[in-house]
Amino acid sequence: MSENRVEVFAGAVVLAVAVGFMVWAGRDSGPSSGTYPLHASFRSVEGIVVGTDVRMAGVKVGSVTEIKLDPQTFFADTTLALRDDIQLPDDSAALVSSEGLMGGSFVELVPGGSLETLAEGDEILDTQGAVSVLALMMKFAGGSSQEGQ
């Protein structure tokens, strides 16, 4: 009878830890209710998916909530959910950046100097798409062989 109590107690502890972990893991998933959408159109969003971080000065300030291809411009139209407490100047830039050679990608916001701010649903006009590391390496390798001729 005492073995059953120990097993029940151990099961309850495991269950409590699992529930605690799920609550902890789910607390930062998806945009919170305190966000507003901004739009940006990129030539390339290689490495960016829905849920990717949006950062400013290395600090997460939002996430990517939608990516779709514009059939007229062939650019990737994205929707970014930004925290309400971040008021971005209307001349700010959005760049697809990488955490390093083997790191993941994220959207980096570079604030401008304007006194006017972007409102909910506005578009960030100054964008820079992803830079292909492979293309850069091919240019570097191809450029060094051309110098010798």
UniProtKB/TrEMBL annotation:
<dbReference type="InterPro" id="IPR052336">
    <property type="entry name" value="MlaD_Phospholipid_Transporter"/>
</dbReference>
<dbReference type="InterPro" id="IPR003399">
    <property type="entry name" value="Mce/MlaD"/>
</dbReference>
<keyword id="KW-0812">Transmembrane</keyword>
<protein>
    <submittedName>
        <fullName>Outer membrane lipid asymmetry maintenance protein MlaD</fullName>
    </submittedName>
</protein>
<feature type="transmembrane region" description="Helical">
    <location>
        <begin position="6"/>
        <end position="25"/>
    </location>
</feature>
<feature type="domain" description="Mce/MlaD">
    <location>
        <begin position="35"/>
        <end position="112"/>
    </location>
</feature>
<dbReference type="InterPro" id="IPR030970">
    <property type="entry name" value="ABC_MlaD"/>
</dbReference>
<keyword id="KW-1133">Transmembrane helix</keyword>
<keyword id="KW-0472">Membrane</keyword>
<dbReference type="Pfam" id="PF02470">
    <property type="entry name" value="MlaD"/>
</dbReference>
